[in-house]
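[INFO] parsing input record for Transport permease protein
[DEBUG] input buffer:
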Amino acid sequence: MRQLLVMTASDLRQHVRDKSVIIFAVLVPLALMYVFNLTFGSMESIELEPIDVAVSVPEGDELAGALVDTLAGLDAVQVRTTQTDEESARAMVRDGDAALAVVVQEGFSQGLAPGQGAVVDVVEGETAGIEAQVVETVVQAFLDRVNAGTRAATAGVLTSAGPVDPAAVAQAAVHSAPAFTTTEGEASTEQLSFSGSLVAGQAGLFLLFTVGFGVLGLLTEREQGTLARLRSMPMRPGLIVAAKALTAYVLGVVATGVLLTVGSLFFDVSFGSPLAVAVLVLCVVAAGVSLVFVVARIARTAEQAQIAQSILAMVLGMSAGAFFPMVASGLLGRILDLNPIAAFMHGLGITRGGGGIADLGEPIAIMLGFAVLATLASRLVPDRGAAA
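[DEBUG] output buffer:
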């Protein structure tokens, strides 16, 4: 045990003195977090600005007036309506005094009679944005409801003996309570925010690079000839591999913990119980170390191993959603769920929602199962570097 600890401590001192480890394991991922959050963080929540709408409606047309009341009462976006005549409404849009003009033509209610048409013109200005699209959607929904009332009136004319007023039925349809209602809800508590996904994803992605500094040192020492001298010392050969694995594990745990902690402070995100998060970190680092050992076995040189490690890290990181959310279903979705980085992010989503260690059974099982399978593979795969 003393020999194992001595070799591990020596490797850790060497890596700490190597500035590239600190730069690539901590500084680069933090810089990427900052850049991505700065670029795409505003997409997480969109604040709608108030919009000026010029409205022209026929005088005395109650149904057209209901459209104006609907726009003025919107909760999603503040609509400042200005009622004027058609020519002035269009002029306000041209001059930039209004982002949108809604012009209800004369005879709107009367045009609802069967065989006739009711016209509403919507004119967009150069300053129209997403707020204008919201208003247009509301106008279309209002007209759809009016049309539904008109169809009901037409059916009444065909099936009843008495006369039916289409405009009255349409107005009743507009003012009546909807048959279906929607209520605002919240996203699942097991989902990370955009900033949270960014921090967790970058921590998981660069974990695979960080543990490589420890494991792939076997190949470097083999090329430099120091591995043969270590094996000539009076100790079990397995201690050398164990020391590299322990070094990689310590580097991975420390770097991932630092990234999660600093990322949480920088981007104001929380991952829940520190103890549960620590368990997830220990499990995902175990999966990362075991995977890099497979790379070390199949690569002939340290350069080949670094290339293979980079490819695997990018594939696993991107498929887990380290940069952008990935959504897949069916067989592909089940395969992506076996990704240890995806399981790590899923586990952090659970802890963020208030879950504890007892709720982390699935992600822990995926990460530890991956670690076991990769460890077995590293024992069964021929060591191409030694054969060379």
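[INFO] DSSP finds 16 helices and four strands in the chain.
[INFO] shutting down worker
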